[in-house]
Write a structure and sequence with these properties.
With 222 residues, this protein is of the alpha+beta class. It folds into two domains: 87 residues, TATA-Binding Protein (2-Layer Sandwich); 86 residues, TATA-Binding Protein. Helix content is 24%, strand content 29%. It contains four helices and twelve strands, in the order E-H-E-E-E-E-H-E-E-H-E-E-E-E-H-E. Strands 2-3-4-5-1-6-11-10-9-8 form a ten-stranded antiparallel β-sheet, covered by helices on one side. A hairpin with a 7-residue loop joins strand 2 and strand 3. The longest helix is centred in the last third of the chain and has 24 residues.
Length: 222
């Protein structure tokens, strides 16, 4: 009896990771106004998690343990929140500040509007980079390896600043929302690969080499 030939299923192709998928938010700086006057001296006297030195700085630093963050509180009721990694965490921190202010008789009557001023994110472009050659090929770059190992690259549209390292790792700063962050990463990838193409066409010895893609995941922080 003839054996039935086993039909093998074609192997599934591995999904190619996009550079923007590697982005991970490390810090968000956000501001808001409580529209209430705050006695910073009273807040400093009654709350243990505060730092207040009016001779050197007009604001009070209020430290939150969870999520770990720091909030600058001004007598006008304006707040600057830093150290968090998502908008949800910003809201959580502001709610905690409002609860602490209630203890000293400050009752916030509004729902504060959050304004993101800056997002700092890390990621990878999945390329080994010759930073010296790249600094000559791209506009708006600063590279002084004797002082700092990374290359500073400034995008104009969307507005963002990148720190690029030779292993392809990067830090992005200057964006204010998820769309801007991802769009800036796409533009960076496009510009760097265009530089790679020009280098190949010119036969440059500073060719950028492709490094293996890594299985990184994108954090949906918004």
């Amino acid at each position: 009896m003839a054996k039935t030939k086993k039909i093998e299923k074609p192997a599934k192709s591995k999904k190619v990771e996009k550079p923007e998928d590697s982005l991970k938010v490390q810090n968000i700086v956000a501001t808001t106004s409580l529209e209430e006057e705050v006695s910073l001296s009273k807040l400093a006297r009654t709350q243990p998690n505060t730092e207040y030195n009016p001779e050197t700085f007009p604001g009070l630093v209020l430290r939150i343990k969870q999520p770990k963050s720091a909030v600058l509180v001004f007598s006008s009721g304006n707040l600057v929140c830093t150290g968090v990694k998502s908008i949800a965490q910003v809201r959580e921190v502001i709610d905690q500040v409002i609860k602490q202010l209630k203890k000293i008789g400050v009752h916030v009557k509004i729902k504060p509007k959050i304004n993101v001023q800056n997002i700092v994110a890390s990621g990878s472009i999945n390329l080994d980079l010759n930073l010296n050659t790249l600094s000559l090929e791209l506009e708006n770059t600063e590279y002084e390896p004797e002082q700092f190992p990374g290359l500073v690259y400034k995008l104009e549209n969307p507005t963002a600043t990148f720190l690029l390292f030779s292993n392809g790792k990067l830090v992005c700063t200057g964006t204010k929302n998820k769309d801007q962050l991802e769009e800036s990463m796409k533009q960076l990838n496009k510009n760097v690969r265009a530089a790679l193409k020009r280098l190949k066409e010119n036969g440059s010895s500073g060719e950028l080499k492709q490094s293996p893609a890594k299985d990184l995941t994108s954090d949906d922080v918004f």
